[in-house]
Specification:
Blueprint lengths: L2 E6 L3 H12 L3 E7 L3 H11 L3 E3 L2 H5 L6 E4 L3 H13 L3 E5 L6 H14 L3 E4 L6 H11 L6 E9 L12 H4 L3 H16 L5 E9 L28 E8 L4 E7 L7 E8 L2 E6 L3 E6 L2 E5 L10 H16 L9 H20 L3 E2 L3
Parallel strand pairs: 1-2, 1-4, 2-3, 4-5, 5-6, 7-10
Antiparallel strand pairs: 7-11, 8-9, 8-15, 9-10, 11-12, 12-13, 13-14
């Protein structure tokens, strides 16, 4: 028996969901929804889906749909995900789960009250480099992880469209890119409770549309609003004494860079740009590189694994494990960083 899937919102990230569902024998793609119905029709033709609509409520009222992927702009995640849960659907919602703490609290309640599953699209958890690292961590190979550092910099990478409009996105690179690497580090650190955050944001460069001779990702919309930060840097403190340092940008006079590192008292790991483990044996430092197909983040494999995982959740084989509660903790962290940047002071995270 397959799980009958509808995908709501059909921008670039939805293509990854659609491709992974299409290739998975557990899934049946039955309907697509987008306010741009012509785009929905084009995606339907591309992926062989017969049903198209511009009204997501029409899909949610259909008992023939079991689960949905929510791939709409950030500020629409919460209302659509909650409506889907209350309509009896399991939900895979793209990151960030919500842009406010209050919305996240509502989704936690909706999951509790409906008994349906909500899984957040933290795809980097499902790439081979992260899965291997997690297995080593769970076996105690690195001991207690007390520090992590995550960097994801784009020199000229503001996509435009709704990504650059804070009223729709909720923020810039911190909430778009930073959310991925913060979650990955936090997940590998054992998900301790965040107790405070200190952050700074800068916006001196803008979208850098003057830059020529450089290919870069652009949102489908031609709109070029830019009311988000160019660059954000922050430190997050946890209740076990551990810290996480984060740097992320859309626009910065720097090279494009990704680096994710964790440090424990028995060893550590560089997860990005490629997996490398560091430890010591017999008074000798060791650098250990696992022999796996992809040492860095493999986009296609990560999405295939994530979608397969979600389908297993829908079938009741495993519980959701990137949960609404975890989305609530992320909302607290991101809100505290932005509040700290605005106030110029460290912000306590309260519950």
């Amino acid at each position: 028996m397959t799980t009958r899937i509808a995908v709501i919102g059909l921008g670039a990230i939805a293509v990854e969901h659609l491709g992974a569902y299409q290739k998975n024998e557990r899934a049946e793609l039955v309907a697509l929804c987008d306010v741009d119905v012509e785009r929905a029709k084009a995606r339907a033709e591309q992926f062989g889906v017969s049903r198209v609509t511009g009204d997501y409520l029409e899909l949610l009222s259909d008992p023939a749909i079991d689960a949905v992927s929510v791939c709409v702009p950030n500020t629409l995640h919460a209302p659509i995900a909650e409506a889907a849960l209350r309509a009896g659907k399991d939900v895979l919602v793209e990151k960030p789960m919500t842009v406010t703490v209050a919305e996240a609290e509502n989704l936690v309640r909706a999951v509790e009250e409906t008994g349906k599953a909500l899984q957040i699209g933290y795809v980097r958890r499902f790439a081979p480099n992260a899965l291997v690292t997690k297995r080593f961590l769970d076996a105690g190979e690195f001991g207690d992880v007390y520090a992590a550092r995550a960097t994801l910099l784009r020199a000229a990478g503001n996509p435009g469209g709704w990504f650059g409009d804070a009223a729709i996105s909720g923020g810039g690179p911190l909430i778009d890119l930073g959310v991925h690497i913060i979650d990955l580090c936090w997940y590998l650190m054992g998900m301790p409770k965040a107790v405070s955050a200190s952050g700074v944001t800068f916006s001196p460069l803008g979208a850098r549309d003057n830059i020529q001779n450089l290919s870069r990702y652009r949102a489908a919309s031609a709109a070029r609003a830019n009311t988000v930060e160019d660059y954000a840097t922050a430190q997050i403190r946890f209740d076990n004494g551990a810290v996480l340092d984060v740097d992320t940008s859309y626009s910065l006079h720097a090279r494009n860079e990704i680096s994710v590192r964790i440090h424990g008292d028995k060893g550590g790991a560089e997860i990005e740009p490629e997996l490398l483990m560091v430890t010591e044996r017999h008074d000798t430092l060791l650098h250990i590189q696992p022999q796996i197909d992809s040492l860095g983040f493999d986009f296609k494999v990560g999405f295939a694994n994530q979608i397969d995982h979600f389908l297993r959740i829908c079938r009741g084989e495993i519980p959701a494990d990137a949960t609404a509660e975890q989305g609530l903790e992320m909302a607290r962290i991101l809100t505290a960083i932005y509040d700290s940047a605005e106030s110029g002071a460290e912000v306590a995270i309260t519950r």
